[in-house]
Amino acid sequence: MNLDQISDVPDIVMEFLEYHSTVRGHSDKTVAGYYLDLKILFRYLKRRRNLVPRDTPFQEIDITDVDLDFIKSIRIEELYRYQSFSPELDRALSAASRCRRTSSVKSFFNYLMLKRHLLDFNVCQELDMPKRQASLPRYLEESECERLLAACEGPFAYRDYAILMLFLSCGLRVSELVSLNLTDVYDDHVRVLGKGNKERVVYFAEGCQEAVEDYLTVRNDEDVKESDKKALFISQKRCRMTTRAVQYMLNNKLLAAGLDASRYSPHKLRHTAATLMLKNGVDTRALQEVLGHSNLNTTQIYTHLDNAALHEAAMANPIGRKTKKEMDG
Which of 144, 228, 250, 255 has the most crowded Cβ, counting Cβ within 10 A? Predict the structure, then answer.
C-alpha cells in the first residue's frame, strides 16, 4: 500500500505503519491490516464515548485528532468490547478476525511502549487473545494430487504442471510463486522471496525439478512486454501471471480432475505439501524452514496426522505393546 496517500489517521498511527513497512519490512497486506484495524478502533472509541454525533456514518468519523492523551485513556474493557465490534450490525466477526484485530492493537501498543517509550503503562499487557476453535487445514490426499496433476492438458500443460508441482512439492505461497523470475531458478533449488522480504532456498524433489525443466524448454516470452520477460510464469495474456490467474487455472484443473473447486485454493495446496512432508517423516523445524515461517507455532498447525497414522505410531512403540505380565515375567 502507498503510505504517502494516507491522510485519514493520526500522525502517531502513520509512524507505526511506516515502522512496520520500512524497518520491519512487513508486507503491504500486513500493513494494510494494521491500518484498517486501528481506524476501526479509534472510530469505535469516539462513537462509544459520544465524541461524535450519533447519526455520523461510521466510515466518516474523523480520527485525525486522536493524540497520545486519548490513547493513554483507553481502558482494557473498551478493548475487549472492540474485539467483537463490527461496523456492519448484521455481520458477526469470525474468530480469526477477532484474533487479527487484537494482534494489531497489541502491536501498536507494544510499539508505543517499547520502541517510542511514550507510555508508562501498556494496557494491552493483560489483554487476552480471543479464543479460536482449532481447525485442521484442508488438504488433498496423495491420490487426489495425482489426479490433479494428470488433469494438466492443453497448450499450457507444461506450465500448469510445473506450477502445481511447486505448490504440492515445495509448499510455496501463491504470492511467492507469481513473483518468481528466471534468475531465481537453479538446477536443484529455487530462491524464494517470502513474507517480510525474507529470502530462502527451497530444494526441488526429482519430479518437481523435471517439471520445471520441461516447462523451461517450451516457455516462450515472445510478445511479452519487456518488464515481464524475466517472469518465470507467463499468462495467456502474455504477461506475468497474477494470483487471480493462478487461482483460475487451479479451479479449472480441479474440475477436470473431478475435485470440488470450492474447497481448494493455492494455499490449500501449500497445506497439502506440508502435510505430505510431515506424514513422510520431515521434522517440524525443517518444515518451518521450507515453508518460511518465522514462528514455529505457525508450522505446528500442520502437524495433523490422520487417525490411522497416529494409531500406527502408537503401535510402533515396543514398550507400549508389552503388557505388565510380560514385563514382570
Answer: 250
By CB atoms closer than 10 A (0-12, 13-18, 19+), residue 113 is: middle
Higher pLDDT pick, 280 / 164:
164
Model's pTM, two decimal places? 0.60
Is 267 designated active site? yes
Helix (H, G, I), strand (E, B) or coil at 165: helix
Residues 137, 271: contact at Cβ < 8 Å?
yes
Q: What is the distance between the alpha carbons of residues 275 and 287, in angstroms, rounded to a whole number?
A: 10
Give the SS3 label for residue 96.
Answer: helix
Q: Is 293 a catalytic residue?
A: yes
Among candidates 21, 268, 287, 244, which has minimal Cα distance to 164? 268
Q: Is 311 exposed, middle or buried (0-12, 13-18, 19+ CB in 10 A)?
A: exposed
Query: Residue for cell digits 506440508?
Result: 274
Query: Is 195 noted as a catalytic residue in this protein?
Result: yes
- The single residue of 191, 195, 219, 229 carrying the catalytic annotation is 195
| Helix 142-150, helix 266-279: angle, nearest 10 | 130
d(CA 251, CA 44): 39
Catalytic pick from 39, 47, 189, 267?
267
Burial code (b: 16+ CB inside 10 Å, e: under 16) for 76-88 equals eebbeebbebeee
pLDDT for 328 beyond 70: no
Domains, the chain, with CATH or none? 3-126 (no CATH), 142-311 (1.10.443.10)
135-144, 210-219, 264-273, 286-295, range with the lowest pLDDT: 286-295
Of 159, 270, 271, 304, the catalytic one is 270
> Which distant-in-sequence residues (6+ apart) come within 8 Å of 226 by Cβ?
none
Q: What is the rounded average pLDDT for all residues in the chain? A: 85
User: pLDDT tens, 137-185?
Assistant: 677 888 899 999 999 999 999 999 999 999 888 888 899 999 999 999 9
Active-site residue, 173 included: yes
